[in-house]
Structures are given as C-alpha cells and as structure tokens.
Amino acid sequence: MFTGIVQSQAEVIAIISKNNAIRLKVSLESRLIEHLEIGASVAINGVCLTAVEFGHLTADKSYISFDVIDETLRVSNLADIALGTQVNVERSLKIGDEIGGHMLLSLIHI
Hints:
Blueprint: E1 8-18, E2 21-29, E3 41-44, E4 47-56, E5 61-69, H1 70-75, E6 86-91
Antiparallel strand pairs: 1-2, 1-6, 2-5, 3-4, 3-6, 4-5
C-alpha cells in the first residue's frame, strides 16, 4: 500500500531494453534501500514496480532496478523517461509508519 506522498527523487542511470520490456535502474539516497528485499514494491512516478536488484554505488548513494513490462510502459509515463531523468520514489507503507498528508473521504450519491 502506498500513501501517494513522494519520499524522494531518483536519477535514472540505466534503461536496458529486453524482450518487450525494459530494465530500469535508478540511483537514490542509501536510506531508501534500508530493509528493502527483492520482490518489494516501490512506486516510481506513482507506478508500483517490483525491485529485482539493489545495492550500493557509494557510501550515500544506492540503486534499485526494476523490470517494466510492455503493458506498464503503454499505460504509464515510464516509456517517456530518459537517462538522467529525475523520477519520484515512494516505498510501500508498513504498519506503524506515519501516513502524513490529509485523510480524505469521498461520498458519491447515486
């Protein structure tokens, strides 16, 4: 589950095409990979992606890689990103995390 509140931005450092998909690699603050596991959900520009690889680049910079399939590229803005692009990053919500923002309730009359 995501709150929709951007936690940081990351720089796109690799885009590798592979069989109607891409491997997207982003560089971000090392604190954002704390407790990350392969298979974890991370939102990039609001699109929920699955971490397939991660690690450290320097003491304060790390990376996360995602495989983005053709359907996700078709229905999101991820097909338009280029090397060096800054993307929004949000880790998934964990029980006990602060939600932040404002709670909204929408009532629809039918």
